[in-house]
Write a sequence for this structure.
């Protein structure tokens, strides 16, 4: 289970992380930045889902090592995660699904995936990131590429400060 990748309900996780708030303009960007660092340090793969994509912004984007899925308005991240698990079939058992929503956890277990509460994952995230801070070895932070910066700017400016 150590190398198990994660499917994360982003808006479910944000309020569980100290310093992040759902009503912040850049809450999604802040979470993705934390997840990118988590993936770099733990060598994990993360797919994160966010509801209510702005018109024309729905779809998947690869931002560094994190795959970000913006779910179109009218659908929920919960539904998209459920559909993804069904499409994965037997390979779903190789994934951990992060959400405190009971329906998402049930769907994960039915698909054979591990279910992890947002609180439990937030604790793992903090542990990995705190270990980096206390590590005496200097870290080499990997800045976003020019393409990633442009993608973030285009994405969040088009959302109209949502």
């Amino acid at each position: 289970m150590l190398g198990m990748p994660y499917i994360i309900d982003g808006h479910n996780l944000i309020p569980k992380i100290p310093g992040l708030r759902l009503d912040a303009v850049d809450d999604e960007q802040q979470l993705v930045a934390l997840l990118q660092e988590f993936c770099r340090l733990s060598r994990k793969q993360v797919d994160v889902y966010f509801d209510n994509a702005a018109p024309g912004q729905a779809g998947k984007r690869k931002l560094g090592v994190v795959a970000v899925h913006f779910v179109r308005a009218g659908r929920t991240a919960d539904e998209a995660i459920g559909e993804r698990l069904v499409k994965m079939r037997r390979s779903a058992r190789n994934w951990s699904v992060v959400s405190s929503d009971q329906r998402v956890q049930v769907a994960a277990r039915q698909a054979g995936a591990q279910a992890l509460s947002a609180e439990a994952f937030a604790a793992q995230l903090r542990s990995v990131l705190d270990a980096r801070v206390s590590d005496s070895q200097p870290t080499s932070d990997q800045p976003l590429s020019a393409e990633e910066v442009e993608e973030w700017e285009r994405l969040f400016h088009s959302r109209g400060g949502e």
